[in-house]
Amino acid sequence: MNKPLVGAALSLLLLGAATAPATAATPRDRTEAAAVAVNFAGTVALSNCSGSVVRTPTSQPNDPALVLTNGHCIESGFPEPGEVISNQPSSRSFTLLSASGSRLGTVRAGKIAYATMTDTDVAVYQLTRTYAQIQSQYGISALTLNDAHPVQGTAIKVVSGYWKRIYSCNVDGFAYRLKEGDWIWKDSLRYTPACNTIGGTSGSPVIDTTTNKVVAVNNTGNESGGRCTVNNPCEVDENGTVTVRQGTNYAQQTYPLVACIGPGNQFDPTLPTCTLPKP
């Protein structure tokens, strides 16, 4: 997995996979609108990972804001396979960044709304401030979660608030299952080689450069060619065939999150539309 960082040293950590069943993807029409300027606005730095302030297409200005990162980045350590954390109190702080990557200030969580490393590798924190309050104080708007499955060939950027670094590449394809150690993730997004993410990039938003919307959350990569071990995930297809892609990095799709967030920006995995693992 791509490693989160503890203090100034690298510590081995996972980076996960996407959450929905694999679906066929068709290459994006390269004649569509020009790319938008992707920068650090809306991203955050954690103590060991990256993240972003996000909203759904229906979130309202006075809703409590949400921060997206990886499940393996939460302060209590990796969730076990099958474990789902919901509505757990948290006072974790996040450094909010400007468009240029400079430090604007600190926002704080009130709770972990949802976190898991089962089927996907995702954590969503609910903050103590609303989107309107963050906009008023810092001039920063949240990034919007795309509500549709991403498309093969899409130009993307992986924006790391921890390193203040932006990686540019394309969606290479999707892994039916991605297995790393004891964890298995579904329909993981695979990058083309230019996104050679490193430790500390865990939890970075993966942004479609045409829409400026978040389509995935960065989480892992095969570092040394190992087969299905920690820091060396393998792909497993519908027939059980295992493929190892040394040097390839992955992200977990985020569109399933949208169907799990109800009125008032409350994360509710029991909603009939939510396909994520239940607590």
Quick overview:
It contains two helices and 18 strands. It is mainly beta and 279 residues long.
Task: Considering the chains and any ligands shown, give keywords for the structure.
mainly beta, Thrombin, subunit H, 2 helices
Can you put this structure into words, describing what you see?
- The chain is mainly beta.
- It has a single domain, classed as Thrombin, subunit H.
- Helix content is 4%, strand content 39%.
- It contains two helices and 18 strands.
- It has helices at 131-138, 255-258; strands at 5-6, 9-10, 43-45, 50-55, 64-69, 84-89, 93-97, 103-116, 122-130, 143-144, 155-160, 165-180, 183-191, 205-208, 214-221, 234-236, 242-243, 249-253.
- The protein has a six-stranded antiparallel beta barrel with strand order 3-4-5-9-8-7.
- A hairpin with a 2-residue loop joins strand 12 and strand 13 (183-191).
- The longest helix is centred in the middle third of the chain and has 8 residues, at 131-138.
- The two termini are 24 Å apart.
- Mean pLDDT is 91; it is low at 7-32.
